[in-house]
């Protein structure tokens, strides 16, 4: 491989690591719950306090900590911001939205500003349209997770992204729409769940190398690397699919704080194994063992969205397929690059050890945050 190509490939990998570090795992979510009853819609909207700061600068004294007093003082500005970026309509006729007093809801990834609301629509709601532009121009990765209920009919959706307006048939939801929504939620969750991707990346980095004589050597053919990648991805997929299904169906659950902490620990183990190799030929076993725990992490977003009655299997299948599609897209993007770099000293002496060390350090920060500071 030419020096120019190697430099460009190295730069691409550096951008990947920088992006991972910059996003620092925490996905930007808003949670919208709406109950339709005739012409009325009641519910609540939640936005992470960290996103409140980005949106309206609630930290009045600039000390990096947002107190309850500062949040209460910023409440009028927050309500104004939400009103400007979130609207609902019935049959394309605007509904009048009003908010009640703000409260705080504690989630596994931090505190959320929780604002109950009521909306009065000009006619009985048959089709509800939601225009969601929260964090527009601030965080393009932000999404809103919707739970919409009308009588016994409950449906969910992912709001925001490239299409800010979404419509929902209140009494007769489409199964195809449900499948697409959950598939998109799965893709979004894996691409925004940097911890899951870094764990997988830690296992894929040595897939283009062989351990001989106490050091890493490049594979001479693509076939061994492809087989190694296939084993790792298959083991990870099988494992997290098992626990995701069990957790989504309420067969077994683990505390979110424990799950998130162990996921961070799994990244540290996988990354350090690249620097101080103990397991070199059976990385798929590591992928399977820790993949079981990552499945509980994937299930957390389903817990927030819920599985609609009458479409539980369809929704679960779609969400899982979305996770696999997002995961496969990352593998297909990264692996040709690392395969092209494998023969150079840069990959074996810089990307493998220092890239793995950076991943381990970042995961250690997450572990401390989740195990100690998340309460």
What does this structure look like?
The protein has 375 residues and is α+β, with helices and mostly antiparallel strands. It has two domains: 204 residues; 157 residues, no CATH class. Helices cover 54% and strands 21% of the residues. The protein contains eleven helices and 13 strands. Helix 1 packs antiparallel against helix 10 and helix 5 runs parallel beside helix 10.
List the helices and strands and how they pair.
Layout: H1 3-23, E1 29-37, E2 40-48, H2 49-56, H3 68-73, H4 75-85, E3 86-90, E4 93-94, E5 96-99, E6 103-107, E7 110-120, E8 127-132, E9 143-150, E10 153-159, E11 165-169, H5 175-192, H6 194-204, E12 209-212, E13 215-218, H7 222-248, H8 256-275, H9 283-305, H10 312-341, H11 345-373
Parallel strand pairs: 1-9
Antiparallel strand pairs: 1-2, 2-7, 3-4, 3-8, 5-7, 6-7, 8-11, 9-10, 12-13
Helix pairs in contact: 1-10, 1-11, 5-10, 6-8, 6-9, 7-9, 7-10, 8-9, 8-11
């Amino acid at each position: 491989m030419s020096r120019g190509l190697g430099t460009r490939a190295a730069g691409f990998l550096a951008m990947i690591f920088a992006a991972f570090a910059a996003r620092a795992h925490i996905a930007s979510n808003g949670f919208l719950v709406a109950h339709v009853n005739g012409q009325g819609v009641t519910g609540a909207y939640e936005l992470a306090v960290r996103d409140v700061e980005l949106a309206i600068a609630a930290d009045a004294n600039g000390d990096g900590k947002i107190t309850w007093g500062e949040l209460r003082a910023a409440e009028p500005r927050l309500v104004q911001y939400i009103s400007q970026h979130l609207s609902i309509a019935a049959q394309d006729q605007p509904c009048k939205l009003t908010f009640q007093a703000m409260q705080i809801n504690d989630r596994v990834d931090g505190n959320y500003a929780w604002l109950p609301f009521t909306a009065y629509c000009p006619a009985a709601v048959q089709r509800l349209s939601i225009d969601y532009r929260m964090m527009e121009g601030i965080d393009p990765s932000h999404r809103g997770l919707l739970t919409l209920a009308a009588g016994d009919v409950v449906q969910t959706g992912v709001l925001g992204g490239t299409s800010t307006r979404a419509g929902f048939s209140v009494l007769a939801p489409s199964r195809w729409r449900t499948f697409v929504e959950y598939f998109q939620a799965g893709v979004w969750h894996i691409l925004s769940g940097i911890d899951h991707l870094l764990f997988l990346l830690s296992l894929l980095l040595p897939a283009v190398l062989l351990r001989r004589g106490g050091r890493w050597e490049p594979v001479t053919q693509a076939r061994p690397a492809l087989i190694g990648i296939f084993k790792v991805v298959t083991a990870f997929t099988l494992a997290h699919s098992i626990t995701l299904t069990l957790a989504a169906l309420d067969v077994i659950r683990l505390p979110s704080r424990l799950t998130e902490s162990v996921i961070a620990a799994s990244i540290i183990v996988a990354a350090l194994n690249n620097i101080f190799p103990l397991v070199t030929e059976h990385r798929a076993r590591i992928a399977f063992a820790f993949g079981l725990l990552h499945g509980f992490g994937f299930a957390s977003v389903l817990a927030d969205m819920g599985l609609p009655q009458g479409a539980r299997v369809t929704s679960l299948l779609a969400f899982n397929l979305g996770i696999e599609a997002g995961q496969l897209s990352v593998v297909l993007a990264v692996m040709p690059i690392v395969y092209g770099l494998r023969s150079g000293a840069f990959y074996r002496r810089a990307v493998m050890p220092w890239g793995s060390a950076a991943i381990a350090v970042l995961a250690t920060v997450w572990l401390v945050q989740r195990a100690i500071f998340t309460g």
